[in-house]
Amino acid sequence: MEFATMKDVEMFYKRYAHETSFGVRKNSSRKQANEMVMKQFYCNREGHRDPKWLASCSNRKSRAITRNDCNANIRVVLDRDSAKWVVKQFEGTHNHDMVSSAERSFI
């Protein structure tokens, strides 16, 4: 699958996420010669909360733990010959329940 711009990639994955009922987080990117050549978008439940925030004993109200190491993601790479963004990796499997359709507007 190919996209003309990075904005097209982002809009596609966010639309897919909305239809599938999960949120999106931008994660890593790579640049060469000050030009972006790779970008990854992940499910918003990817990874784990940093342990320093779990052990914190400040007066702040603790937030619910929402991350559970979900691996759903898309990685796109810039093909310099065609100047298009090409999907190099797509993982559509989630390890958690999706948001209900009634709560979808809150993601």
Describe the structure.
It is built from two helices and five strands. By secondary structure, it is of the alpha+beta class. It has one domain (2-106). It has a five-stranded antiparallel beta sheet with strand order 1-5-4-3-2, covered by helices on one side. The longest helix has 15 residues, at 6-20. It is globular. It holds the Pfam family FAR1.
The tally of beta strands, per DSSP, is 5
Which secondary-structure class do the elements indicate? Answer: alpha+beta
Radius of gyration: 16 Å
Counting copies of identical and different chains, the oligomeric state is single chain
Q: Tally the structural domains.
A: 1
Give the distance, in angstroms, between the N- and C-terminal Cα atoms.
26 Å
What overall geometry do the principal axes of the alpha carbons give?
A: globular
Q: What is the chain-wise order of helices and strands?
A: EHEEHEE
Number of helices: 2
Largest sheet: number of strands, sense, barrel closure: 5 strands, antiparallel
Mean pLDDT comes to 80
Strand content: 25-35%
Which regions contain 5 or more consecutive residues with pLDDT less than 50? Answer: none
Topology of this structure?
Layout: E1 2-3, H1 6-20, E2 24-32, E3 35-43, H2 51-54, E4 73-79, E5 84-91
Short description:
This is FAR1 domain-containing protein. This protein has 107 residues and is an alpha+beta fold.
